[in-house]
Write a structure and sequence with these properties.
Layout: E1 2-8, E2 19-26, E3 29-31, H1 35-40, E4 44-52, E5 68-72, E6 79-81, E7 84-86, E8 89-92, E9 107-115, E10 128-130, E11 132-136, E12 147-148, E13 152-155
Parallel strand pairs: 3-13
Antiparallel strand pairs: 1-9, 2-4, 4-9, 5-8, 5-11, 6-7, 10-13, 11-12
């Protein structure tokens, strides 16, 4: 699930290459035994700010390519132990254009991603810890900077 807020800012001029900045991740620890997390598939959230000089973020095509890319940075990925396969790559799509296709204006705002259940891959009754790297791509193919979250602790 994605939540985003944004506004057009004709007076603000940003580069046409999108830029993002980490805001928060909450909670900072989750439990692999949290069945509500598993059932709802929303275990924690990551919020970041964005700005884009020509406002070409998002897409009106729901079957289009993803434009938010998140990588789980645990060193022991991909994990492949059937029935669980987890490569640590999570892709999302902004559900609609933040500005009309024909307009060309600077935009800025925040995006919050409700992150799905991620498996614990350390089975030694020790907490698992990871960070996430995030970047976005606009409709012109411009890739933003990459941000990294603080650590998330996953308790067994």
């Amino acid at each position: 699930m994605l939540l985003f807020t944004g506004c057009s800012t004709p007076e603000a001029v940003f580069p046409v290459i999108p830029r993002i900045e980490f805001v928060e991740m909450k909670p900072r620890a989750i439990s692999s035994k949290d069945t509500l997390c598993f059932i709802q598939n929303q275990c924690f959230s990551i919020t970041f700010r964005f700005e884009d000089g020509d406002g070409d973020l998002g897409t009106n095509n729901f079957s289009g390519p993803p434009n938010i890319f998140i990588t789980d940075n645990r060193p022991n990925l991909p994990y492949n132990n059937p029935p669980i396969y987890y490569n640590g790559k999570l892709n999302f799509r902004l559900p609609r254009s933040l500005t009309p296709e024909t307009r060309n204006q600077s935009i800025q705002g925040t995006i919050t991603i409700a992150m799905p259940y991620i498996p614990i891959i350390n089975f030694f009754d020790e907490p698992d810890t990871t960070t996430f790297s995030i970047y976005i791509v606009d409709r012109s193919g411009n890739k933003s900077n990459t941000i990294t979250t603080p650590p998330l602790v996953i308790y067994p």
